[in-house]
Input
Amino acid sequence: MPTFVERLSARWRAADSLLCVGLDPDPTRFPAHLRGRDDAIFAFCRAIVDATADLVCAFKPQIAYFASQRAEDELEELIVHIRRRHPEVPVILDAKRGDIGSTAEHYAREAFERYGADAVTLSPFMGGDSIEPYLAYAERGAFLLCRTSNAGGADLQMLEVGGERLFERIARLALAWNRTGQLGLVVGATYPRELARVRAICADMPLLVPGIGAQGGDVAATLQSGQTAAGAGLVINASRAILYAGQGEDFALQARAAAARLRAEINRHRKRQTVGD
Amino acid sequence: MPTFVERLSARWRAADSLLCVGLDPDPTRFPAHLRGRDDAIFAFCRAIVDATADLVCAFKPQIAYFASQRAEDELEELIVHIRRRHPEVPVILDAKRGDIGSTAEHYAREAFERYGADAVTLSPFMGGDSIEPYLAYAERGAFLLCRTSNAGGADLQMLEVGGERLFERIARLALAWNRTGQLGLVVGATYPRELARVRAICADMPLLVPGIGAQGGDVAATLQSGQTAAGAGLVINASRAILYAGQGEDFALQARAAAARLRAEINRHRKRQTVGD
Output
C-alpha cells in the first residue's frame, strides 16, 4: 500500500491542485432547506465533497465541529463516503491531538481505525515520544503544529531558543523524528516569512497551510514562500470561504465555483516544470 | 454558582483528599465478568466511581479511551451519573485540546455543554487567544499543560528561552492569562524539581499532577515540591494503579482499597495547619 505522502503527491499531480477543502460544518450557517434535517451535517458535507472532489488534493474534516454536535456517526459516515466515491482523495483529520503512551495509542486508533483517516494533525508540545504511536501506522501520516495562523501563536512559537525561534526548532525536530517519511508540518498562511523559513529547513516535507481566505492569508505570498522546488509540497486549506460561498439551494455549486477560483489562483502562482523535466 | 477553583478547594477540605482518580477504561483489562457486556465501559467506570467518590477530590475521565471505542454516549452517561450521585466531586475532562477561534469554541462546547465537565485540560501551544473561548464559561476551569510527565516532554518544555525554561515561561504566561482565576497547570510527578519551580512561580494555582504510580512519580517528593503553603493546591492523579488494582468480581473494592492507601500516603506528607490557624 502506498504511503500517505505518496498518495498525497499522486493527488497533487492528478488533480493539478494544492487546494484542500476544510469540512467545518456549522449548522447555523447551513442553507435554509437543510436546517432541521436530522442528517443535516452529513447531507451538507456530502454535497460539498461531491461538488469539489475533483478540484482538491485533500479533504480536512475538523473534528471539533462534529464532537460539539454529537455527530461522530456522521463524521464516520462522511469519511466512508469519501473513501467509496472519491478514493483518490486523502482525508486529513484535523484533531490536534497531543498525549503520551497508551492514551496516544487510543487517539491513533480513533483517527486511523475508527475514522479511517489518512493523516491526522498533532501538537508537538509533548515531544517525540508522543508522536510515535501514530507512526506505528506505516501507511498513515501526521502533520505537526509548527507556526499557527493566529496572533497568539507567537506567545510560544516565536520565542527564541538558542539562536532560532521555537517554530524553527520544531521544524528541525520534525526532520529528526521523520525517519519514516510520515510527517508534515502545519504553518499558517498569515505568516509567509515563517513559512519560508520552514520550507528552507524542510525542503520537501508536506506543509498544511491554513489561514487563506477568512483569516487573511495571501495566496501569492503563500506560494512564493512555501512551495517546493517542484512547485508542490503544500496543502492549502480553505473552509468557510468555500463551505458558505452560497446560502441557497445551489450552495454546493457555489462552493464548487469558489473552490475552482481558489485552485486557479493558487495554480497561477505555482512554479511549473518545463517539458522534459 | 461557585467557580471551579472554589468547588475544588471545597472538595479538598471536605474529602480531606488531594487524590484524583483517572478514568481510563481499557476493556482488555476489565474483570472477566464484565467483558463482552454491551455497557462494560459504563459499568466498569460507574463501579469505580461509586467505590472511590468519598476518597477523591476529583474524577478525570480521559476522552481518548472513550473516543477510540465509540463510547461517547457512555462518557456522557458516566458524567451524568457523577453529577447525580456525587455532585460535590468535580469532573476534569482530560482532552488536551488546542485550537483557535470558532474551532476552540466548538471544543469548549463539547467539554462544558455536551459532557458537562467542570474543567478541561488544554495545550498552551497555540497561545493565549486559544484559551479564551474556554474562559468564557465563567464557572468552569482549565488546566494548561506545562511540564508533562513523559521523557519526550523535555524536547520542547526544557528549552531555554531568555534565561528560563519554556515550562517556566508557560507558568508565567498562565499567571498573566489567569485574570479570572479559572486556570491551573499540568505538571508531572516524575519531575519534582520542575514541579517546585512551577509552585514557586504560581503560589496558589491548582496543579494537576499525573505520573504517580505506573509512571514512577514519588508521593513524598510530589508533596514536598508541589503543595501550597496551606498544604493543598494539588490534584494528584492515579489511573491504572487504582482501576486495575483487582482483577476479580471484587475489583471495585480493590480499587477502593488502593485509593484509600494512596490518599493516606499523600496525606502523611501534607503540611497541616495547626489548630487556630
In short: Chain A is about 45% helix and 15% strand. Chain A has one domain: 4-268.
